[in-house]
Amino acid sequence: MRTSILLASSITVFSMLTLASLALGPAGVKNPLDYIDGLGGVELYRLLRTSASIVVGASLAVSGASLQQALRNPLVDPYLLGISTGASLAVALSLLLGLAGPLGIGSAALAGGLAAFLLVLATARLAGMTGSGLIIVGVAYSYLFGSLTTLLVLSFPDKLTGALYWIFGSVAYVDRGILATAAGGLALATLYLAASSKALEALSLGEEAARGLGIGVERLRAGVATASLVAVAASVALAGPVGFIGLTAPWIARLLGAARFQHILVASAPMGAGLALASDILARTLASPAELPLTPIASLIGVPILVYAAVERWRGVEAL
């Protein structure tokens, strides 16, 4: 019953934010129901932008929740592991080389995210680091990839017009082709992760117990990592490296009562989409007619939630 209430609440909030995203913007307020009758330029742009925010938020959320479960670390996040910034660097390089278009950008994001993830894992493994050590390595590489992307954008402003804004996260430049490709990537990743949810749940018992149940732990982790990378690539291709959503959405689901991984995964998707929608609404209204990037706003929303979650978790540990 509690899980049903959680899911219903998250879907309700997500639906309200979707309607607000369709209605609010620099061009003024419009009745969302008017979209049924036909779409003009502003209305179509808002629909595409709203759809992009949903895909970005859901992609980061399901990726974050799955990586946290697979690596058994609740602080894991695509951004903190360097995946998002690695994908962003690859996209900037592809644009610099003239490899634009949905296929080129999507492939570059996937390849960059994969390379970054493998580099982080290899470095941590060579150093014998696990748990928080993995996060430290990921954060270090995330700063490195982010810095390299910024240097590229500043060095080639003519070829990378608008990219300086994009590297802080934005759906302002949404492209229909990239949106369709990203939505397909999210759908495939989510289907795989949902199909693997029971096996991932078994990891909560420990690796040995999971192996005793006939689960190939390494193969499972490789599959989850691949699906998560596809989801992150979809997000980066659309909006650049957006931080905090992949970390925050699963924590909100846990705070609201989701305990089993299946429930966390199901609740995280609308939570992440809602966070992205709220961030984008604020991005285009707070400084209108100018716009703000998504990551700083998502951070402002996510930091209080994470601090509260950390305090509650610490109190729970001390109470044992």
Task: Summarize this structure briefly.
With 320 residues, this protein is mostly helical.
Q: Notable features of this structure?
A:
ABC transporter involved in vitamin B12 uptake, BtuC; 320 residues; transport; ABC transporter, permease protein; 13 helices
pLDDT average, as an integer? Answer: 83
CATH superfamily: ABC transporter involved in vitamin B12 uptake, BtuC
CATH architecture: Orthogonal Bundle
Give the C-alpha Rg. Answer: 19 Å
Uncertain residue segments: 27-38
Number of discrete helical segments: 13
Question: What are the secondary-structure elements, in order, as H or E?
Answer: HHHHHHHHHHHHH
Largest sheet geometry: none
Could you characterize what this model shows?
Its main location: membrane. One of its GO terms (cellular component) is plasma membrane. It is built from 13 helices and no strands. The chain has helices at 2-23, 41-70, 83-96, 101-126, 132-155, 163-166, 176-195, 197-202, 207-212, 217-239, 245-255, 261-285, 294-319.
Topology overview:
Elements: H1 2-23, H2 41-70, H3 83-96, H4 101-126, H5 132-155, H6 163-166, H7 176-195, H8 197-202, H9 207-212, H10 217-239, H11 245-255, H12 261-285, H13 294-319
Helix pairs in contact: 1-2, 1-12, 2-7, 2-10, 2-11, 2-12, 3-4, 3-5, 3-10, 4-5, 4-7, 4-10, 7-10, 11-12, 11-13, 12-13
